[in-house]
UniProtKB/TrEMBL annotation:
GO terms assigned for molecular function: 4 iron, 4 sulfur cluster binding; metal ion binding; NADH dehydrogenase (ubiquinone) activity; oxidoreductase activity, acting on NAD(P)H; quinone binding
Cellular component aspect of the GO annotation: membrane
Domain (4Fe-4S ferredoxin-type): residue spans on this chain: 23-52, 63-92
Identification of the protein by name: 18 kDa subunit of NADH-plastoquinone oxidoreductase
Keywords, sorted A to Z: 4Fe-4S, Chloroplast, Iron, Iron-sulfur, Membrane, Metal-binding, NAD, NADP, Plastid, Plastoquinone, Quinone, Repeat, Thylakoid, Translocase
Superkingdom to which the source organism belongs: Eukaryota
Record InterPro entries: 4Fe4S_Fe-S-bd, 4Fe4S_Fe_S_CS, NADH_quinone_OxRdtase_chainI, NDHI
Coiled coil location: none
Length: 117
């Protein structure tokens, strides 16, 4: 009787995610080496890594990177296995959109800071 309600009036109230909540993935373009480990460990090979080989530098150069959160199951495998830690899971959970194609985040959208910290 004296306890406060547990439910919140979404979207007017903000939920506090539990510890180790797996929300929207954050990506750091500068750290990515285009190794594609994230693609290989993803159960559905979801991340799209576009790169080209730079012969002058003798290494791959990342051109673009994207993850479709309309398909992602937020298992965290890509974050776990990325060798340069350029992926991380944020606590951002509000991913509702009117058009499902808006959930296909490119590296610019993946690189913005989470709205929930
Ligand atoms: S595993 Fe990490 S470094 Fe390798 S392509 Fe994926 S995001 Fe880039
Ligand atoms: S969280 Fe899981 S499903 Fe989503 S991109 Fe990473 S490995 Fe794939």
């Amino acid at each position: 009787m004296n306890r406060k309600p547990i439910t919140i009036h979404y979207p007017y109230g903000e939920m506090v995610p539990s510890e180790r909540f797996r929300g929207r993935i954050h990506f750091e373009f500068d750290k990515c080496i285009a190794c594609e480990v994230c693609v290989r460990v993803c159960p559905i090979n979801l991340p799209v890594v576009d790169w080209e080989y730079k012969a002058s530098m003798k290494k791959k150069q990342l051109k673009s990177y994207s993850i479709d959160f309309g398909v992602c199951i937020f298992c965290g495998n890509c974050v776990e296995y990325c060798p340069t830690n350029c992926l991380s899971m944020t606590e951002e959970y509000a991913l509702s959109v009117y058009d499902r194609h808006e959930l296909n985040f490119d590296h610019m959208a993946l690189g913005r800071m989470p709205t929930v910290s």
